[in-house]
Specification:
mainly alpha; 5 helices; about 0% strand
Length: about 130
Amino acid sequence: MTKAKHKAKGRGGRPSIPSDQVRRHTIGVRVNEDERNRIQEKADRMNMAPAQWLRHAALDRILPPCPAPKLNRDMYVELGKIGTNINQLVKASNSGRMPHPLPPLRNLVNIIINLRLEILGVSSDSQTD
């Protein structure tokens, strides 16, 4: 087989990557000896190169929510106090200590509970009873 025929058949090896998926950028991270060893051990356990493991850990991992701002935490506390007072009124109504039943207060307590969770960035669906 001549060289010309060989080139006509195409090149062997790995297929080319689409241009939008080519990794052209580098992010430098400095680590100390212990950190490097820990990253290497984790990468080894996953049969990955350290760079591949770091990329996977950084891009595919679900991070915890950001901490709530102080204002939200303060509002959470105040709404808790309001909710406690309303809850006491509901209990008094249910026990017959109040002359008029107050069923709308039950709904208000639930609204306050959900609002407190939203302020902290927590979904009420993720809470268990």
